[in-house]
Amino acid sequence: MVFNLRSFSFTDSIEDDPPPPPRGFSLKELRVATHNFSGENFLAEGGFGKVYRGRLADGSLVAVKRARTVDQCSKEQFETEVQVGRSVSTHPNVLRLRGFCRTTKELLLVYPLITNNSLSYNLTERPDRFAQPLNWTTRKRIALGAARGLAHLHDQGNIKIMHRNICVASILLNVQFEAMIGNVYVNTLTCGIIGFTAPEYSYTGKCTLKNDVFTYGKMLLELISGQPIFYVFPEVHNGEALWLEDWGNYVEEEAERLVRLALLCAHKDPSVRPEMSEVVEILESQFLQRDSSTRSSWSP
């Protein structure tokens, strides 16, 4: 199948009153918000440190990342997240930085709390194995939302922001199960996980926007199939049928088109891969124009 990669022609839908830029919080504010970083508010732990649930004075729920140690590495990551968080314009499919706090002994980053966890959680990490999987309409909406968010990062005027590690774990789902790209600001030194990143990175050592397109394609295969990518990718590249693990309400013709798009994005030759703006246009033209009943729910 040949996709018509026409010029990029859609307008991002930004809120009428966009949220304010990241602001400085006092340590006292964040201690109160998290009940002094109590165990009952602990959410997760990552490379930077622990993450805590918090409620700010205005009632909004946040996730507070607390650096494990205040060393040179954590300082560099903190400064990068704040700098990029200030640079990226608001978009409904990109997780924004709410604020930060820096003292001699603490480094803290504040993000909105995402209620429905990550795409990875919803696909393969659900506690109840027999829980209803994401339905097909939701999966299409996630595919488009993630593409829109990534295209937005790639087109920040003079700044081209590479995510470097697009995967099901970095796609977060809000209360409406709309996709939000997270972990935008932390992958500045490496380019994803070897074996999951684009093949050219292994011999050039250079990360480009086309690497993000490649990993988006892999993420898309995992979203469609409900299977971990290390099972799915070898199968489809060897010409085998793609097994749909989840029993969601698939539309076979649409699933086939999405698989073809995913393989185009994950092509071994970076020159063949489309730009993310073109991926957005393909998704909009293939689905939004075909089903007017989903047009309003797909629009950000």
Automatic annotation (TrEMBL):
Q: Per the record, a Pfam family?
A: PK_Tyr_Ser-Thr
Q: Where in the cell is it found?
A: Membrane
Entries under InterPro entries matching the protein? Kinase-like_dom_sf, LRR_Rcpt-Like_S/T_Kinase, Prot_kinase_dom, Ser-Thr/Tyr_kinase_cat_dom
Supply the enzyme class, top level. transferase
Cross-referenced PROSITE patterns: PROTEIN_KINASE_DOM
* Superkingdom of the organism of origin: Eukaryota
Question: Where primarily located?
Answer: membrane
Q: Which GO terms describe its cellular component?
A: plasma membrane
UniProt protein name: non-specific serine/threonine protein kinase
Organism of provenance: Eucalyptus grandis (Flooded gum)
